[in-house]
Amino acid sequence: MASGAELTSQEYIKHHLQNLTVGEGFWALHIDTLGWSIFLGLVFLLSFRSVAKKATTGVPGKWQCAVEMIVEFVDDSVKSTFHGKNPVIAPLALTIFVWVLLMNAMDWVPVDLIPTIFSWFGVEYMKAVPTTDPNMTFALALGVFILIIYYSIKVKGIGGFIKELTTQPFGHWSLYPVNFILEMVTLLARPLSLALRLFGNLYAGELIFLLIATIGLFQLPVHFLWAAFHLLVIPLQAFIFMMLTILYLSLAHEDH
Amino acid sequence: MNINMTLFGELIAFVVFVIFCMKYVWPPIIGAIEARQATIADGLAASDRAAKDLALAQEKAKAQLKEAKVQAASIVEAAKKHEAKVIEEAAGKAQVEKDRILATGHAEIETERNRAKEELRAQVALLAVAGAEKILERSIDAAAHSDILDKLVAEL
């Protein structure tokens, strides 16, 4: 435990779920979330960029092979769902998949390791899994939501978009307000569910890790089991986020 | 759950990352992958073509071999025929030559014999005359007669 035995388990968990924060209220910034997410994003971009810079069309090296596997996997996912031509979708999906995967993967790092190291330098709070911060997941979802709105209007026109929101599922004009309410719920549920799904899964996973960390010696096998279970959860959540992003943007491109 | 400015910080980071990925990461990697796929597809097509060409060439070679065999057989046949003909012709010629030589020989022999006969005839006549002369010379001596006759005979 980070700050010694004088903490009760409730205080311990609360402590570990506290972000390193600068500022007050709405203007506060979670330095740990920002720091780790940007660090992991740079890890992703720079490692992939190193391949992109010397990408050979001949026999690829091992690292290039690994990167190409991920790129092809994302490309296949995009091509199977999104049938239009849009140069943004595939890089967007790749960024989301790898970035979220890396951020989720921070869940595997023992819950006390990073906070302890930072506590030596006088940093009191350190939450190392950015996707357990709703700010992170809502930022991703909001980015996707803006793209949904942008492409809906770009492809269908502002009139077409409004028409889509009002003229279905009921065809009669008197029911248009009802339609609008229903469609708005559908539209808003998309980013909301995206953000909450990722946040909920990872937050719950992190919470269980913390709970396990409070049970003493037997935490080791239980930790192992829970971490092994996260072999499934971590890539799955990253994949779901990517696939739903592709799907929503593909729906935004469809003209009814 | 406390939503704050972190969200917008992350949103900016997200946008920057996606743009960087779109500009500098995705196009070169997917380009390399697609170029390699094209190369592999070309290679496979070429090997397919080569296999087809090989099969075609083998078939052609087989057909040519067959044709060559047939031609060789016909040439041998023709040669045999020609040989037989040449032999036959030679035999015919030889026969004719032989007949001619024989005929000439016969004719020569005949002439020679006729000439000898003539000569003999002439000599016989002379001998007869000479014999008669000798007989006439010693007509009394019987023993001498036989002597003469013996001589005559010996002279023949």
Keywords:
heterodimer, A: about 260 residues, mainly alpha, about 70% helix, B: about 160 residues, 2 helices, about 0% strand, rod-shaped, cell membrane (chain A), ATP_synth_F0_asu_AS (chain A), ATP synthase subunit a (chain A), transmembrane helix (chain A)
**SSE order of chain A, one letter for each helix or strand:** HEEHHHHHHH
- Count of beta strands of chain A: 2
Largest sheet of chain A: 2 strands, antiparallel
**Strand composition percent of chain A:** under 5%
Structural class of chain B: mainly alpha
N-to-C span of chain B: 170 Å
Q: What's the order of the H and E elements of chain B?
A: HH
- The whole-number mean of residue pLDDT values of chain B reads 89
Overall pLDDT of chain A, averaged? 88
How big is the Rg of chain B? 61 Å
Main β-sheet of chain B: number of strands, strand sense, barrel status? Answer: none
Structure notes:
The complex is a heterodimer of chains A (256) and B (156). Chain A has 256 residues and is mainly α. Chain A is 71% helix and 2% strand. Chain A contains 8 helices and 2 strands, in the order αββααααααα. In chain A, strands 1-2 form a two-stranded antiparallel ribbon. The model of chain A has no long low-confidence stretch (mean pLDDT 88). Chain B has 156 residues and is mainly alpha-helical. Chain B has helices at residues 6-137, 142-155. In chain B, helix 1 packs antiparallel against helix 2 (142-155). The radius of gyration of chain B is 61 Å and the shape is rod-shaped. Chain B starts with 5 loop residues before the first helix and ends with a helix. The A-B interface holds A 19, 23, 25-30, 33-34, 37-38, 41, 44-45, 48-49, 51-53, 55-58, 60, 64, 67-68, 71-72, 75, 87-88, 90-92, 94-95, 99, 130, 133-136, 138-140, 142-143 and B 1-11, 13-15, 17-18, 20-22, 24-33, 35-36, 39. Chain A: Key component of the proton channel; it plays a direct role in the translocation of protons across the membrane. Chain A: This is ATP synthase subunit a. Chain A: The chain crosses the membrane at residues 27-48, 88-106, 136-153, 198-218, 224-251. Chain A: Keywords: ATP synthesis, Cell membrane, CF(0), Hydrogen ion transport, Ion transport, Membrane, Transmembrane, Transmembrane helix, Transport.
